[in-house]
Write a structure and sequence with these properties.
The protein has 2 helices and no strands. By secondary structure, it is mostly helical. It is elongated.
Length: 115
């Protein structure tokens, strides 16, 4: 980059910085009443949006309560059925293993009766 191009680049940067500074100073020169009014309006809008979101959230929760109850009850039933099936499979596997053990060793896995 030549010396002239570097000087032009620096001059443009300085002019841009000065313009931005002047704009910011002018924006800060507005009355504080306007700023306060804008802040109060923004707070009011924010509170209204939050209240509306809460109301909608509660309405959705109320309408979906029966569905959630049904899903919970069905899940319990399925869980109980799976547990019962797993217990039955475990009992059958133990019974089969006892039969195999008895056939291989000639002894039952049950304790000998006390006489």
């Amino acid at each position: 980059m030549s010396y002239d191009a570097a000087m032009k680049n620096t001059l443009l940067r300085a002019a841009s910085a000065a313009a931005i500074t002047l704009m910011l100073t002018a924006a800060q020169a507005q009355s504080t009443d306007t700023t306060t009014t804008i802040k109060d309006d923004a707070k009011t809008v924010g509170h209204a949006v939050a209240h509306s979101a809460t109301t909608v959230g509660h309405a959705v929760a109320d309408k979906t309560q029966p569905v959630r109850d049904t899903i919970r009850d069905d899940s319990k039933k399925v869980g109980q059925a799976v547990a019962h099936s797993a217990k039955a499979v475990g009992a059958k596997a133990k019974e089969g293993a006892d039969k195999v053990k008895g056939a291989v060793t000639g002894k039952s896995s049950e304790p000998a009766p006390k006489s």
